[in-house]
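Sat 14:20. Reprocessing the chain from the morning session after the first attempt stalled halfway. Input below, unchanged.
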Amino acid sequence: MKKKNQRNLLIIICLTFLMIFVIRRAWMSDDAYITLRTIDNFVNGLGLSWNINERVQNFTHPLWLFLITLPYAFSHEPYFTTLFMAILVTLVTCGILFWVILKAEHKVITGFLILILSNAFIDFSTSGLENPLSHLLLVIFCLLLIHAPKTNRHIFWMSFVASLAGLTRMDTLLFYFPALVWVWWQAEDTKWKTLLVGVLGQLPLLCWEIFSLIYYGFPFPNTYYAKLNTGLPAHEIYRSGLDYYFSSLQLDPLTLIIIVSSILIAFVSTRNRNKTYPLAIGVLLYLVYIFRIGGDFMSGRFFTMPLVAAVILFSLALPGKLSKNKPAYALIWVSVLVLGLTAPKPTYDITVDQEAVKEQAESGKIISEREYYFAQTGLVNQIRTEDAPYFEWRYMGESYRWEAQNNPDFKVARAQTIGMIGYYAGPEIHFYDRVGLADPLLARLPAEFNPYWRVGHLDRSRVLIELEGYNDTVLTGENQLTDSNLRTYYDYLALITRGRIFSGERFRAIYHMNLGHFDYLIEAFKYRYPEVKYIAYGKVNDYQETPLVIDKNTQRFKKDGLVINIPADKQHAADLEIAVQNNLKYELHYYKQGELVGRQVISKTDTSGINLPYHLDIPRKITEQGFDQIHILPYSRGEYFYLGYLILDE
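Finished this time. Tokens:
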């Protein structure tokens, strides 16, 4: 057999086994149905939005949406259509990767073993999310980078592919930026002309942004505002980012170790440095970005693109010939096999313990999202006599549809998860959720305080209680909010999302809203801490013997904390004595004229008693700046918390 035919046969075998693994684990996430409801509305001429009476972009992947729209327009079937497109795109991606980039048999084997044993790659090659298309565009871009001649035409196409990647998921542009800068710097033509060519390549993304600003009124999707408008301190977000990394190491050790190893090898190896350096820097930037935003609730989802890039980095940085490097490649293959097969759930295993995963999700942990849904939405688990997916949320949505058809007053609904329920409920029902993914007002209100928050699930349930008149506002389309400031804010927002698209008044509102000129109308503290209790310093500054009993002199408050108003003569105090319920963690937030000037932690103790005193030195920076309020926040579980006293001293 000729060597070329032998290589082709190897690639076909690798692709076959890879697709078998992908199909066996094929599944659909609830988030995919958020996009599918928008697609269904669009195909049926009801607009490119979640709710037909409100222009809101609640999807983050326009290009993936349009790619699914093409076959959906013919099939009008969401489940198999989406899975078919995901599997097809994955097959094309791996075909280009194996045949055109890796080429050599030993490199194909290396890439094949990494991909087929990575839980992240196998799981998110389906799911209904945009990962497959992101993988394909990354592979095409790397192909252009590897064979980059330094001409403007080539640079244009590299920029064009990067632009499409930004349309698939905007934050992935971090991958492409270092490589684009590198090829621009190495270009044969003048820097200004090459820069212009690169900008022209970004036209798809620029056109979408212009459309988004005109049609939706905002440059970013609604989910951007809902998920990043957290009010969380940076250290909590960073902690969540670390948790995301540790979750990947625990559930899928191969993926993250391979990614880090590829970066190290790319920087150490002398082979193809002009290609590996910019690609490795792009991967590194993206990893830092994942940490900076606190990761995600779907373990491994954000690591699939770095993994595909890692396969390419290995191919470029490792020695090219197997004959002289057999021990090195043997060590790599054995390491990959050991890491892949020692995962808690290797990729060949399709069994799930759904109840255990649900318990982990409810406790706020980062989980394997596939395991959460696989029993109901897994391709191999579908029942021939039932429509796919065979899932309770589908039937809940269909019951909403039936109710809307038979009850003319049933037009608005709220659900904890809105994807599948919203899709099957149909366009006649206005759906919004407690996280605010599909609601423009909720997305712009701060998430409520919760020390046990879960990334991607920043709750606004209690905020909704405070929005008196909002349900009637959504139902009738007339502003019935009782809060005067929020009522004014919503008037501008409704003008943008519900008003006539081409009007001068609307464009002025878009301009001011995006520059934050209306943000002063939102009382962020009020909505972040809807059940906070206020009290005067004179009510809590009486010293009492400890340990205390809980009586009428003890201040009781809920998880949103207790705000103590500080008199002028105590606003530069340097010392603080406080007696609070022990064995709990608290934070003291110091405010001056509504602005946070500093934080201080009261850690847990192992002592007994109801309230015990803590003697604290207030940080010098806070003392010098001064403070007029102290907010006591409990960072522990419980319905009520107790303060015995708080005394400030100069």
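The chain is about 55% helix and 10% strand.
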